[in-house]
Design goal:
Distance between the termini: 49 Å
Number of domains: 2
Shape: globular
Number of strands: 12
Number of helices: 11
Strand order of the largest sheet: 5-1-2-7-6-8-9-10-11-12
CATH class of the largest domain: Alpha Beta
Largest sheet: 10 strands, mixed
Structural class: alpha/beta
Order of helices and strands: HEEEHEEEHEHHEHEHEHEHHHE
Length: 390
């Protein structure tokens, strides 16, 4: 039997939650349905056009911001690839020195990406700018399955290390100075814009800096929401991220009426509650979409993490008997266990398509939405629910 104190605490929390919801609705935070043409009426409404890679090869380069690295993926003419090897990264490069010292030398699995290091960009630009924000206890290259895919379809994608919430910091090695995620994102955006006008630089003429399209996973989805208030952001995509009850009073600022938001999430996510994602959709004042994925957890559909090594990053940590806190192991493993969940590549198809289709439409690369109508669900078996307004 629970004590009266516990019962009182629970009742108080429920009362506060209810009060916040009532105030939010009374304040006009619940938006009217967005108006506009339905994607169901577009000529290519049912075409799963963006599952496969686009017409460009992908280049990648790493540059230095004021205090941290920035990864950049960009379109490349396919004939430039030649016999170049695909780029790869190593998870050990992102852990703290104390943890790295505990890992046996022969344990260093690489993740091979779909990009090629430092190839010249195509002359077909400039291309729209996408900012990717990684999650808690993660790193800038965590979702190359998606960042390289977007570059192949005509975007420049930038991804800074958010060192304050990064894997190295969580494992005991925080950065010397702390900065907000928005400040880091703003610096990365301005760097990309300056690089496109730098004569002779690797990104000269490559970036269309008129707008920026933020996307992000988990905590990076929170960064995405905080960037929606920028006047140069027409749309954003939070992946496995929601709007919790305490954010309702701030919903009008986080979700402005002139900004489109696509929410992509998993009902079986053990880290982010699907109710919070659905709440984010419900309180989105602009055009909105919600894609819910079957057999996905927190990381398998949205990152490379489950595909690193044999069984994912957590499997590596446990195999090496690393002293990783249980809650961090749970975060990094949510979705990786197959067959309880599906292998990442099967779910990447839906994430790649809906993300690419939405961003190409918002950037003006597609004059009408492609593959965003209800009809496209016939092409996918991993979408549990798809809502859109209009």
């Amino acid at each position: 039997m629970r004590s009266n104190v516990t019962d009182g605490t629970i009742n108080t929390r429920r009362a506060v939650t209810a009060l916040i919801a009532v105030i939010a609705v009374a304040a006009g935070c619940t938006p009217p349905p967005a108006q506009g043409p339905s994607p169901n009426d577009a000529p290519r409404a049912g075409e799963a056009a963006y599952v496969e890679s686009g017409p460009y090869a992908v280049g990648v380069t790493t540059v230095q911001l004021s205090d941290r690295p920035l990864e950049i993926w960009y379109p490349v003419d396919p004939e430039e690839v030649g016999d170049a090897a695909r780029d790869e990264y190593f998870i050990r490069d992102f852990v703290s020195s104390s943890i790295d010292a505990l890992i046996p030398e022969d344990i260093n699995p690489e993740f091979v990406t779909d990009a090629y290091r430092d190839l010249p960009a195509t002359d077909d630009g400039p291309f729209p700018l996408v900012l990717f924000s990684h999650g808690f206890a993660s790193y800038r290259t965590q979702s190359t399955f998606l960042t390289t895919h977007l570059a192949s379809w005509g975007f420049v994608v930038i991804s800074p290390d958010y060192l304050e919430r990064g894997l190295r910091a969580v494992l005991g090695e925080p950065p010397p100075a702390s900065r907000s995620d928005v400040a880091v994102a703003n610096e990365a955006i301005e760097f990309a814009r300056a690089a496109t006008v730098t004569s002779g630089g690797p990104l000269e003429g490559v970036v269309d800096g008129a707008q920026v399209l933020p996307i992000g996973h988990s905590a990076g989805g929170g960064t995405t929401l905080r960037l929606l208030a920028r006047p140069d952001v027409p749309a954003g995509i939070p992946l496995a991220a929601g709007l919790n009850i305490t954010q309702l009073l701030d919903a009008m600022r986080l979700l402005p009426a002139d900004t489109a938001v696509t929410w992509i999430a998993a009902p079986r996510d053990g880290i982010v509650r699907i109710d919070d994602v659905r709440r984010g959709y419900d309180f989105t004042a602009g055009e909105r979409r919600l894609v819910e994925l079957n057999d996905a957890g927190h990381v398998n559909a949205f990152s490379d993490i489950c595909e690193i090594g044999e069984g994912g990053v957590v499997e590596i940590a446990q195999g090496a008997n690393l002293p990783i806190p249980p809650q961090l192991l749970a975060l990094g493993d949510d979705g990786c266990q197959v067959p309880r969940f599906k292998p990442s590549p099967e779910l990447w198809e839906e994430v790649r398509h809906f993300t690419t289709a939405e961003l190409r439409y918002r950037a003006g690369l597609d004059p009408e939405p492609v593959g965003l109508g209800d009809q496209v669900l016939e092409q996918f078996d991993d979408v549990r629910r798809y809502r859109h307004d209009p």
